Amino acid sequence: MKSITIKGSQRESVGKVATKALRNAGKVPCVLYGGDNPIHFSADEFEFKDLVYTPNAHTAVIELENGEKLEAVLQDIQFHPVTDKILHVDFYQLFKDKPVTMDIPVHLEGNSPGVRNGGRLLFRKRKLAVKALPELLPDFITVDISKLRIGGTIAVETILNDNYTILHPDSTAIVQVKASRTSVADDMEDEEEEGAEGAEAAETAEAPEAAAE
What is the pLDDT averaged over residues 12-26? Predict the structure, then answer.
């Protein structure tokens, strides 16, 4: 998984006055949890653009002024209710031997025959909560919809993986195709109907010969 570097400065004061001063200076107050003690630091708001404003999942490397580099994941973020400016960010420190939970985006692959026949694609889960060791966290989870027909569903149980645990019930629907007013019979259904009609025609053609005997 790709890591985004966040250059920060440790904070000596964490009171309301100091926090307000940081925000007025275009800095974002942050806290890194998970270690022996929380680490308070601040970073320029633009440092977060590739970590926050993206549909992809990334880990972070917190690079402090003293040269210390700490791997982490974004745990929580607060935005201003009016301006959407970042007000505060919480990180959780990563350790190679400790599993971590992250929301991983789902990427759909292929063309659904159900959609080609007019069905409605319902993308139920665009992200899935995944638990894994940091080095095994996927950038995204691929779901193949090339065989998804009208009335079909792809659930969590079909994409289980030994490298990570998906923290949703196995029956959780990820993507579905529902019939719509404009949908037509599915390709497979058409083929099955044609096959059945062909079999009936063959039986009818053979019937007079059997009677003659």
Answer: 83
